[in-house]
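re: ur question from yesterday

yeah so i grabbed the chain u mentioned. its 133 aa long if i counted rite. heres the sequnce exactly as i have it in my notes:
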Amino acid sequence: MSDREKLAVRMEPETRERLERCYTMDGSSSRREFIEKAIRFYMDYLEMNDGSALLPKEITSAIDGRLGLFEDRMASLLYKQSVEIDMTNGIIATAYDIGEDALRRMRTQSVRNVKETNGRISFGQRMRDGGDE
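ran it thru and got these structure tokens back, copy pasting raw so excuse formatting
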């Protein structure tokens, strides 16, 4: 004999009709098996602390790994870009004596350029536009 307990359940007629129509859709061989699967599924849903439980651990782990690699690559590229920008700034600062007011105007223009181009500024375009300022 099994360790199962009998549990009487009252349900609305519409729910009973849906049960009769749907219990074989997931491969359940009986209404009891279907109801037990549904209850377990709903309890698992309620016990979830975060959305990661919706995906199998292997998929979550693979996504986390790929995102970690992407984060490391982006951090490395941003570091290299920052070094290059600092070198360029150093060269320009050494070559030109630019006053504070001119520097503020240039920063304002640069912010405007970045916003207008969504960050896609070409050096050639900046050279063509730069002589007008």
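noticed a couple things. Residues 57-95 form the longest helix (39 residues). also The chain is about 70% helix and 0% strand.
anyway ttyl
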